[in-house]
Structures are given as structure tokens and as C-alpha cells.
Amino acid sequence: MMKFWISVLAILSASNVAAFSAIAPTTTSPKTSGGTPELDPVDKTLHGIDTSAESFDPTSGGDTAALTRNNKGEVWVTQRARPRRNRKSAVMRGMVRENIVTPSNFIYPLFIHDEDFNQPIASMPGCVRHSLDSMLAEVGESMALGVKTFVLFPKVPDAVKTNLGEEAYNPEGIVPRAIRMIKENYPDSIVCTDVALDPYSSQGHDGVVEDGKILNDVTIHQLCKQAVCQARAGADIVAPSDMMDGRVKAIRDALDSEGFTDVSILSYTAKYASAYYGPFRDALDSHPGFGDKKTYQQDPANGREALIEAALDAAEGADMLMVKPGMPYLDIIRRLKDNSPLPIAAYHVSGEYSMIKAACERGWLKERDVVLETLTCFKRAGADVILTYYAKQAAQWIKEDGLYDM
Question: What span, in angstroms and rounded, lies between the C-alpha atoms of 261 and 376?
Fold first, then answer.
């Protein structure tokens, strides 16, 4: 008897499976060798697809019809210009592509500290404060991928921070030592340095403070000393990020007077008082000790003001102009590109990086695709140079895509 009921259950189960299979919708279609779904050919005449008397036929109505029919009786939009023809294949899209990003466009920001271990930066997943040995290894790996320009940002101990920021021009400080290490091991690399006092300031500001104000000219005095110190260590580019008035001219004259006429100045020309800098300040432990930076960094509401800064920096001897942040200020990148013959740099800042990381960690975005699109947007807007924490990873993706070959 038991065997009988087992047989009945087996028959019923098989019947249910067959019945379900008959009514269940097909969830997948066979794929062609190219990976696209294999579907039946479409009858492009579209005759008989809807026989209802009330159905609308876009090809009816004579001269007022939305569509007509070609010589084969197929529905036809009588438009000669069809931009999609230039998008019909990867080869065609590559042939007419207006902007291409390569690793040579990147400057890779590296955070460094005087410890023998790497410290992960919680608000910037994937980024760390490097020990100097780790920094050197990261430079080597990046060079192999075609990224050959680096900018250094130090996290210094609180014990050496002062209002005047004297540690900024200590010849044995972490930045000069890091410069020497990189240039000795990778002489073909380009080393860029940040010229500003905030990493060294006990007040967390980019300049010297008195009575709650940032002293412009006193700060520039210190910046000149810092820039010359970095040049003596071997820096190829100095990048003043402080936004003091007149600092580019003073730094240029200081460098030239010491014989460093070949050291370039990448000026933070349009650096906005942005809310996107938080994770960077976590990395350097350089949050303002009081107030904000709105008395020297630009108002996010202003666009034309960037042209004033650009004209001044160019006249004072800047070799390149930077816009910071990047994505929210693509219009500023374009304005500077249209109004200056100098190369334009865009800084894909920490907040932009962290937003992408957070969305990708939650599965909301595909990291590789959105990063490469973002970097291409900078190039399309007019950026010649892109500072990005994704430099090494993006270079790897670009190489894998065959867009760039060492």
C-alpha cells in the first residue's frame, strides 16, 4: 500500500511540474554568440499587429501622418540626418569619440604619515595614510600602469603644529623626505606638492591667524619658504591651495630667485568653500579649529569670479589652473577653458570619491562604469589634468578595456 501512494504522489508531482511549466512565462531567451537575446525577426511593415477598429495607425493621415512607408512597405521616419549611425558599433563610436582619458592625464593624490604602518581612512574607503615605504610601493605600481604624476598630502603630529606653520618648510619634514625618496627611485616621475599651511597649522586654517582673521601677506611669506623648501627637495610642481591674494607672483619670484625657474606652479585658481572636503580633512586631521574658510575660498554661488582669479594667476606666472571641487563645478572648468590658454586641472575631491564609494558599496552603482564616466566628463568639460583618488584603479580599468596600452 505504501508503494502505491508513493507512486501516486510521484505522478501528481510530475503532472504539476508539467502544468506549471506550460503556463510559466519564459524568463530568459537564448543568446546569440554576441550575447544578445535571440529573437524572431520583426516584420517592419507592422501590418496586422493590432486589428482593433479603434487602434491608431501612425502611418495614416496623408501629409499629416507621423510616419510613412518606404519602398519595401516598412514604416519609415523620413529623416536624413540620423546621429545614431555614428553610434552603431564600438568601432564606430571609438572612431568618432571626442574625448579620451588616459593615465597620463591623472595626478594621483597620496596621503602620507611618519609611521611604519598604513592607516585606513574610514570616510574614504580604499584610501590610506601611507608609510613612506608604502608610498614608494604605491608609486611604483602606479608608474607601471602609466600614472606618473603624484601629489603629496601629509598628516603631521599635533606636536609640530603652530600658528605660523614652521614645520611646512622643515627640510627634514615628511614631505621633503618623501619627495627625495620618490625622485631617487623613480626619476621619471613628476612630484607635485601642496603649498598651504593647514596640515601644519594649530588652527586648522590655510594661513596664519590673528584675532580670528587669516593674514594674507604674512601667510604668503610662509608659503614662499615652503615652496622653496619643496623645490630644493626635488619637487617638479608646487601647487598653492591657500587662496591668498597675490601668492602666485610671490611664489614664482621666490622660486626664480633661488634658481628654480623650471619648477612649475599649478595654482588652485578656483577653489570653492565647499562642503565636499570633509573626508580629506579627516585624512589630514586638518578641520578648521574655528569658523570656516569662506573669507578666502570662493563662494559656491559665484561663477564669473573664477575668471578674475584665473586672469590674476595667469598674469602672476601660473603654469596651470585648477578648479576644485570637480563634478559640481564643470561649468567653471568650461569657463576657464574657454577663457585661458593655460592647461586646466580638475580635482575630483574626497567628497565626490566617497559618495561614489558609498553608492557602490550598497550596490546602487557599478563602480568601474561610473568612475570612468565621471573622469570622461571632466575631460569633456575642458580639463586637461585630473586629480583623482581613483587614478591607479582607473588606469587599470582603462588598460583592461584596451583604451590605453603602455
Answer: 33
In the predicted structure, residue 35 carries a pLDDT above the cut 80: no
Which of 324, 337, 357, 379 is catalytic? The answer is: 324
Chain-centre distance for alpha carbon 294: 24
Determine which one of 148, 271, 293, 357 is catalytic. Answer: 271
Between the CA atoms of 306, 312, 313 and 315, what dihedral angle is there, to the nearest 10 degrees?
Answer: 140
| Predicted pLDDT at 51 | 75
Q: pLDDT band for position 404 (50/70/90)?
A: low
Measure the CA–CA gap between 247 and 258, rounded to whole angstroms.
17
Question: Measured between alpha carbons, how far is residue 374 from residues 101, 139, 350, 371, 401 in Å?
Answer: 10, 23, 14, 5, 16
CA distances 375 to 103, 324, 400, Å, are 11, 14, 16
**pLDDT score for 19:** 40
Closest CA to 67 of 88, 46, 84: 46
- Tell me whether residue 399 is one of the annotated catalytic residues: no
Active site (annotated) includes residue 271: yes
Alpha-carbon radius of gyration of the chain: 30
Q: Within the chain, how many helices (H) and strands (E) appear? A: 12, 14
Q: Looking at this protein, which amino acid is placed at residue 402?
A: G
